[in-house]
Design goal:
Length: 276
């Protein structure tokens, strides 16, 4: 029941119609008896500054930030965690009595989702598709865990910026073109772009480049065309639901200082996903 004391949590993104974050957090709030409510806000690029200002004006307790705002939002915040500052992207904001602090829980969410699938990335060769906010967090997480990164992005300069940013953490190489020789070298391919959110999106990579030995990881959920193609080829496929879950766990703790009921959230997500 929403009352005058209910704390509001939200998500800012474009699009947000697909998001399962409200289901995750509202189920956790209900189970724990916390007086919070999580709602989606469709925020376009031109409105991002006003939306961030509104967090203070409306006394919103916190928000998630999703595509395409994870990098642009930084300029409007009062404080940023060391990790978010290093990564250069924010996906979680806490409003602490009018002070907005940004965090990044994507890196931890990505790593935990792999570990849940018994996938260790130490010394693995990993191809990252994309160079946006999510890609930065994923590259950071991989390098911290001892993996080797190859990164491809249509705009080469953005990929080169990521290489320069994280080169001191470990091995990272920019790939100007996707070639068979690269695919034979890598163990894991990660789609860190938003391609696949819309039905008419182009594929982030030609399925012909996938090999049965690959693990194909897609941050988009619940399932994309390329995930289906990868399964046909014989790849182990990991969708974005795991990363969504574990980044949400970390964000939940930032907002509430309470551990969320992970098993309850998983059961709820499984029920929802069977409807897709």
């Amino acid at each position: 029941m929403i009352t005058g004391k209910t704390k509001i949590i939200g998500i800012f993104g474009d699009p947000v119609e697909h998001t399962l974050s409200p289901i995750i957090h509202n189920e956790a709030f209900k189970y724990l008896g916390l007086d919070y409510c999580y709602v989606p806000f469709h925020v376009k690029k031109k409105d991002l500054k006003n939306a961030i200002i509104a967090i203070k004006a409306l006394n919103i307790k916190g928000v998630n930030i999703t595509v395409p705002h994870k990098e642009a939002v930084i300029q409007y915040l009062d404080e940023i965690s060391d990790e978010a500052k290093y990564i250069g992207a924010v996906n979680t904001i806490l409003n602490n009595e009018g002070i907005l602090k940004g965090f990044n829980t994507d890196a931890q969410g990505f790593i935990l989702s792999l570990k849940e699938e018994s996938i260790l990335i130490k010394e693995k060769n990993i191809l990252i598709l994309g160079a946006g906010g999510a890609a930065k967090a994923i590259v950071y997480g991989i390098l911290k865990e001892g993996g080797k990164v190859y990164i491809y992005n249509r705009t080469l300069s953005k990929a080169l910026e990521i290489k320069e940013k994280f080169a001191n953490l470990g091995f990272i190489e920019v790939i100007p073109h996707i070639e068979q020789s690269i695919n034979e070298k890598v163990d894991i391919i990660v789609n860190a772009t938003s391609l696949g959110l819309k039905k008419d999106d182009p594929l982030p990579i030609n399925p012909a480049f996938l090999l049965s030995k690959h693990i194909y990881y897609d941050i988009v959920y619940p399932e994309t065309l390329l995930m289906n193609e990868a399964k046909k080829i014989g790849c182990k496929v990991v969708g974005g639901i795991g990363m969504l879950l574990w980044q949400a766990v970390e964000a939940f703790k930032i907002w509430t200082e309470v551990e969320p009921p992970v098993d309850v959230i998983k059961k709820t997500l499984n029920k929802v996903l069977t409807k897709y």
